[in-house]
């Protein structure tokens, strides 16, 4: 299995060191070789599982249970709001 | 003086009600045990001494008759939120995170008067089978400090086996409760999908994760499960019609004796240690000699379980873990733009196994590969699940080994991920199908490493496997 570790690590937004790239390339190729056994399984007419349960949608009123639950864990905040870096850059 | 080694939830509850001992004495004894002995075992990541003592004082001051769980000191896996306590999920990326609310299962237990001693070590984000992937430290098997306790809930299992908590909570995605329970010689239950609230569980793979209890006896596991189970509107996968009663802890013995036990041949194939298969023979002979009906069954798609799991699980994990990007959680490393911020924070914050699985999950979900990998795996998963349906037409309960081997040495499997993944080959199918699974420790193994057997039952029929386990435990 040819696997482009650089491409998928970048899609996942994970920076890997050169050493990690080499090791994961080998590891993931081994794993993908193993799971390739599924190729030969005949699944004609078999429906895929779509979750852990066959439940239908479950609804509840969208009412806030408890305010300010998240901001104590914000890495940067201002006046109770989450501060994020600029999304648009000039360069 | 309390002997922690002999204590069970059942026996402590009786002692507390007879006022032979106070909750505060018991809690102090556990805190002392943690202080003196956890340096060697490494079960805990954080201990809430003050909170545990305060809860103990409150229960001692209460005038009412205590419920069976009141004053019972337990430990909680660090992926499950206990209000005001750290919740790292074993990851550096959440090193400073403090739970801002209480998890659903924890809340139910707290309402019963359960005392929370602290949070236990685990593989980072529950990804592993030995707790060696923790971002913080190693946990050792109390039966042999050179060996792993299993994983990913290794800290929770070691805490109970090492008498550093009377019971504990873990989560099980592919065996993370049952396998460490087997390796540490205690009981552990993976509950039916939807039976226990996952509100406040840091998610790994949402179609597989379940919270469940560890304890020294099957009966104790049943007591905790009975209190934890039930609908929670804050978990949309929790089942509104789930309901359990006293049958979980007070089995209808006539019904239990009428159960047919299935032996799926595919779980007894190559890769199973001689010592483990010999123990299984003993257990099967026990049930036979007690007059239980035993039947051979075939579950031919079991062999695909591991491959299905290593596509579905990383796919779900890669989406669940996308939130740990340095924006809302954890510390934020400086970066020159938004893209760099993501790359830096995830690159530095996650450990090797987490990066491996996120990258793999991203690949199997990517355009061009989705059908070949993810969709294909979900179809084969249907076949694995149909094996269970067919087997349960013929038998009531399935009996298998829990882990192919006894506890392995620290470092033995860390270099080869696939070899580590094989540790869960017998526990993964129950997660794929959402059925309950219980590890029961094999008896009379003093001086040898623990072995456990697994009982799997139909959806919502925890009473069958708990009853069958209690039958073995008491004889």
Automatic annotation (TrEMBL), chain A:
Regions annotated as coiled coil: none
Keywords for this protein: ATP-binding, Ligase, Nucleotide-binding, Protein biosynthesis, Transferase
Quaternary assembly: Heterotrimer of A, B and C subunits.
Gene: gatC
SUPFAM superfamilies xref list: Glu-tRNAGln amidotransferase C subunit
InterPro entries: Asp/Glu-ADT_sf_sub_c, GatC
GO MF annotations in UniProt: asparaginyl-tRNA synthase (glutamine-hydrolyzing) activity; ATP binding; glutaminyl-tRNA synthase (glutamine-hydrolyzing) activity; transferase activity
Superkingdom of origin: Bacteria
Functional description taken from the UniProt entry: Allows the formation of correctly charged Asn-tRNA(Asn) or Gln-tRNA(Gln) through the transamidation of misacylated Asp-tRNA(Asn) or Glu-tRNA(Gln) in organisms which lack either or both of asparaginyl-tRNA or glutaminyl-tRNA synthetases. The reaction takes place in the presence of glutamine and ATP through an activated phospho-Asp-tRNA(Asn) or phospho-Glu-tRNA(Gln).
Similarity-based family: Belongs to the GatC family.
Designated name of the protein: Aspartyl/glutamyl-tRNA(Asn/Gln) amidotransferase subunit C
């Amino acid at each position: 299995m040819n696997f482009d570790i650089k491409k998928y690590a970048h899609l996942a937004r994970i920076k890997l060191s050169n050493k990690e790239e080499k090791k994961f390339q080998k590891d993931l190729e081994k794993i993908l070789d193993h799971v390739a056994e599924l190729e030969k399984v005949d699944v004609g007419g078999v429906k895929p599982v779509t979750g852990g349960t066959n439940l239908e949608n479950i609804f509840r009123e969208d009412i806030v249970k408890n305010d300010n639950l998240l901001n104590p864990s914000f890495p940067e905040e201002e006046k109770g709001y989450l501060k994020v870096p600029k999304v648009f850059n000039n360069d | 003086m309390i002997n922690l080694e002999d204590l069970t939830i059942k026996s402590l509850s009786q002692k507390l009600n007879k006022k032979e001992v106070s909750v505060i004495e018991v809690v102090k004894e556990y805190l002392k045990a943690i202080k003196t002995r956890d340096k060697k075992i490494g079960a805990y990541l954080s201990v809430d001494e003050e909170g545990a003592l305060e809860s103990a004082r409150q229960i001692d001051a209460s005038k009412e008759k205590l419920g069976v769980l009141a004053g019972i000191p337990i430990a909680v896996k660090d992926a499950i939120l206990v209000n005001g306590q750290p919740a790292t999920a074993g990851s550096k990326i959440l090193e400073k995170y403090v739970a801002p609310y209480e998890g659903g299962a924890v809340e139910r237990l707290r309402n019963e008067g359960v005392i929370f001693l602290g949070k236990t070590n685990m593989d980072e984000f529950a990804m592993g089978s030995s707790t060696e992937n923790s971002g913080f430290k190693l946990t050792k098997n109390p039966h042999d400090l050179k060996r792993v306790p299993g994983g990913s809930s290794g800290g929770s299992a070691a805490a109970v086996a090492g008498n550093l908590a009377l019971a504990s909570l873990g989560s099980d995605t592919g065996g993370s409760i049952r396998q460490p329970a087997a390796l540490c010689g205690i009981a552990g239950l993976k509950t039916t999908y939807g039976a226990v609230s996952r509100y406040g569980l840091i998610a790994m793979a949402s179609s597989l994760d379940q919270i469940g209890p560890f304890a020294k006896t099957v009966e104790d596991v049943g007591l905790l499960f009975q209190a934890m189970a039930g609908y929670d509107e804050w978990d949309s996968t929790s089942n509104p019609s789930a309901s359990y009663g006293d049958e979980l802890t007070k089995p209808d013995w006539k019904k239990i004796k009428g159960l047919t036990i299935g032996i799926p041949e595919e779980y007894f194939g190559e890769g199973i240690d001689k010592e483990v298969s010999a123990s299984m023979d003993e257990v099967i002979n026990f049930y036979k000699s007690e007059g239980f009906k035993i039947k051979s069954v075939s579950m031919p798609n079991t062999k695909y379980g591991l491959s299905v799991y290593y596509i579905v699980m990383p796919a779900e994990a890669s989406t669940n873990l996308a939130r740990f990007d340095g924006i809302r959680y954890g510390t934020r490393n400086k970066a020159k733009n938004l893209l760099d911020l993501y790359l830096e924070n995830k690159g530095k914050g996650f450990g090797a196994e987490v990066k491996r699985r996120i990258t793999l999950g991203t690949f199997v979900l990517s355009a061009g590969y989705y059908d070949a990998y993810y969709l294909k795996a979900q179809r084969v998963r249907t076949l694995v699940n149909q094996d269970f349906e067919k087997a349960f037409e013929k038998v009531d309960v399935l009996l298998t080994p829990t882990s192919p081997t006894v506890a392995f040495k620290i470092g033995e499997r860390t270099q080869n991920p696939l070899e580590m993944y094989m540790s869960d080959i017998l526990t993964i199918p129950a997660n794929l199908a959402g059925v309950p699974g219980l590890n029961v420790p094999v008896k009379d193994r003093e001086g040898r490493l623990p072995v456990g057997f697994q009982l799997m039952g139909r959806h919502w029929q925890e009473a069958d496997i708990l009853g069958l386990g209690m039958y073995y435990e008491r004889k």
